[in-house]
Write a structure and sequence with these properties.
52% of the residues lie in helices and 13% in strands. The chain is an alpha/beta fold. The longest helix is centred in the middle third of the chain and has 34 residues. 25% of the residues are buried.
């Protein structure tokens, strides 16, 4: 039996080292870590590697429940997959251990609260944006691409599809940024 850890931080200004240390103290022999949003499991390569690494009889361990998933759907899918494969799941700070019946109950209760918290945060953010728009203070997300980039590439003879590929944006964005506002 191996105890395998997974650490995740959301932004590049954060560092997973504290989580990694807690996981090692918690008995993890191997730790996977990454800097990715927990809103979805998509693109989380280290999570995928950790899930592939664990075998029957192993335990996947995280420091807090929200380090694994922010949505009930993702959490249930991951934990159900682990359970089907005979792999336990442990959360250090909330004392959850799915190898015990009380751990399974606590997991479901806390996961519900975590999803509720995320929904409330999104609601507050939307309200704040609406208020800022009403007060003409909302600027939106800064553009990744400027119109000068598109103008320069058009001058080089590239068409909209080629410009989109070069800049890593949608072709519709090329058209939108090319027209005067």
């Amino acid at each position: 039996m191996a105890v395998v850890g997974y650490a995740r931080v959301s932004s590049f200004t954060q560092c997973p080292s504290m989580q990694m240390e807690q996981l090692r103290v918690g008995g993890c022999e191997k730790v996977f870590a990454e800097k990715r949003s927990g809103a979805s499991v998509d693109g989380r390569t280290e999570l995928a590697a950790a899930l592939e690494w664990v075998r029957e009889g192993d335990i996947l361990c995280v420091t807090r429940l929200d380090r694994l998933a922010r949505s009930m759907t993702d959490l249930r899918r991951i934990v159900d997959d682990l359970t089907e494969r005979g792999i336990g799941f442990r959360v250090l700070q909330q004392s959850i251990d799915t190898t015990r019946p009380d751990g399974k109950l606590l997991l479901n209760v806390l996961a519900s609260f975590a999803e509720f918290e995320t929904d409330i945060r999104k609601e507050r953010q939307a309200e704040g944006i609406a208020r800022a728009k009403a007060e003409k203070r909302f600027k939106g997300r800064p553009a990744r691409i400027s119109t000068t980039d598109i103008t320069r590439l058009r001058a080089e003879g590239l068409g909209p599809s080629a410009i989109a590929r070069t800049l890593g944006i949608a072709r519709a964005s090329v058209y939108r940024l090319s027209t005067p506002h």
